[in-house]
Amino acid sequence: MNEPETTCLTGEIVDESVEISLVELSRVSGASEQEIELWVAEGVFDPKGTAPREWRFSGASLRRARVAFRLARDLQVNASGIALALDLLDEIDALKSRSRASRTN
Amino acid sequence: MKYKDYYAILGVERTAAQEDIRRAYRKLARKFHPDVSKAVDAEDRFKELGEAYEVLKNPEKRAAYDRMGTHWRSGEDFQPPPNWDEGFEFSGTGEASTAHASLNEFFEAMFGGARTAHGPRGPSHSMGEDHHAKVLIDVEDAYRGANRSITLQLPVIDARGHVQLQSRTLNISIPKGVRAGQHLRLAGQGGTGTGSGPAGDLYLEIAFREHSRFHVDGADVSLDLPVAPWEAALGARVTVPTPDGWVEVAVPKGSAGGKRLRLKGKGIPGNPPGDMYMVLNIVLPPADSEQARAAYDTMRQAFNFDPRSRFSG
């Protein structure tokens, strides 16, 4: 175990206003560009621009891309399976927050 | 060192066929994948599954593991018999080995040496890897911004191929307006580059700690607001907490239970900011004294009220 080093840092929020290129999204998410292209074809992401080189993803895509990458890597889920899984996960989140809101009544 | 029963972890018999082991692993991996399961221990369970599967899917490692004997129970103090691995050559690494870089003592001691360190790949001057971590913050931090000290555990593969945990403490400032699921990018705080390549970035995924009062949904925050029946019926001004301090809220007269009052722009700050919702919860005072019972009786006589009127319609 090494000695902990201490640094003071300010981060930048990767929010909807941040635009990410295909190369950056691939680098940050860990997924290959080919994989991401397949996911776009399945409607997992809706980048601005037409050709893959011009694509601009919103900052919110980063979390989806990370989840997609982990599911593909850990469970060998193919592109259409990824699209389905992410849609279902979104739906579960929405239902959970709705049921929590109604439980308080 | 504690013994780990890999068969029990996968829920299979010691005599299980490779195909059954694979099927059991796949099924449990789907169930406990941290992105799918909301169980608090999902991440640990998933790592444990990966570790068990990495050994049992490989006939050589499985045979070596079996040779340690069947009389051990999970969690029991354990010393491997001498030369337990004699005559076994662990070839290569499973494709899952770096993905689930296991930090488990038992696994490391038994099978860790078989892991090969990944040398630098690609061009000799390349950017360092990006690193990822999750950070739990309080919803109040998103309203005001905050300084937090976080400790990251980074698995590093040493010269002998063993995984060592390196810890690094960072003081980071959480910017105001951050939301759950968003990432915070700390430029140059990832892995070091090779050659003259720049260091990678560190990405922190933000999540909110469960709060006893506030529930966060995107940029909106909601609060369960208990009111007395007369406050809901006659209207009232009540003082309520928000993550940014106390505010006075007008409960309109004739409010029904479950009604949502919106405080526009009082959710998580941003452009646009989220909203704050107060969900009215009408609480009945207990009829636990003569006076209280008399008050309820007065109500009964004062109202010609049938709460079940729609049943007879």
Topology:
The complex is a heterodimer of chains A (105) and B (313).
Chain A: E1 6-10, E2 12-14, E3 19-21, H1 22-29, H2 33-41, E4 56-58, H3 61-75, H4 79-103
Antiparallel strand pairs in A: 3-4
Helix pairs in contact in A: 3-4
Chain B: H1 6-10, H2 18-32, H3 42-56, H4 59-67, H5 105-111, E1 131-137, H6 139-144, E2 146-157, E3 163-174, E4 183-186, E5 202-208, E6 214-217, E7 220-227, H7 229-234, E8 236-242, E9 245-251, E10 260-263, E11 276-282, H8 290-302, H9 309-312
Parallel strand pairs in B: 1-5, 7-11
Antiparallel strand pairs in B: 2-3, 4-5, 6-7, 8-9, 10-11
Task: Describe the overall structure.
The complex is a heterodimer of chains A (about 100) and B (about 325). Chain A is built from four helices and four strands. Chain A has about 100 residues and is α+β, with helices and mostly antiparallel strands. Chain A has a single domain, classed as Multidrug-efflux Transporter Regulator, Chain: A, Domain 2 (Orthogonal Bundle), CATH 1.10.1660. A two-stranded antiparallel ribbon of chain A has the order 3-4. Chain A is globular and about 45 Å long. The model of chain A has no long low-confidence stretch (mean pLDDT about 85). Chain B is an alpha+beta fold and about 325 residues long. Chain B folds into three domains: about 5-115, DnaJ domain (Helix Hairpins, Orthogonal Bundle), CATH 1.10.287; about 130-210, Urease metallochaperone UreE, N-terminal domain (HSP40/DNAj peptide-binding domain); about 225-300, Urease metallochaperone UreE, N-terminal domain (HSP40/DNAj peptide-binding domain, Sandwich). Chain B contains nine helices and eleven strands. Chain B has helices at about 5-10, 20-30, 40-55, 60-65, 105-110, 140-145, 230-235, 290-300, 310; strands at about 130-135, 145-155, 165-175, 185, 200-210, 215, 220-225, 235-240, 245-250, 260-265, 275-280. In chain B, strands 6-7-11-10 form a four-stranded mixed beta sheet. The interface of A and B includes residues 4, 10, 15, 75 and 97 of A. Strand 1 (about 5-10) of chain A pairs parallel with strand 3 (about 165-175) of chain B, so a sheet runs across the interface.
